[in-house]
Design brief:
By secondary structure, the chain is mostly beta strands. The chain is built from no helices and four strands. The protein has a four-stranded antiparallel beta sheet, with no helix packed on it.
Length: about 60
């Protein structure tokens, strides 16, 4: 049975029921939580947990 939570849906504009579909990305394989949640009314997807951040990478060019 999927997890259920009430969250503010940015598309609907108010509090809605969000469900967690079966995880196809392997987040739950080791007992972890899947970050994907879907509004049960409109289908808008949200991700919970830490926000991924871009990390600057030094690039070297050949002379």
């Amino acid at each position: 049975m999927p997890e259920i939570s009430d969250w503010l849906c940015p598309e609907c504009g108010d509090l809605r029921v969000f469900v967690q579909p079966p995880c196809a990305d392997g987040h739950t394989d080791d007992g972890g939580d899947c970050p994907e949640w879907v509004c049960a009314d409109c289908g808008t997807a949200l991700f919970s947990g830490p926000t991924p951040m871009a990390v600057p990478v030094a690039v070297r060019r050949a002379a």
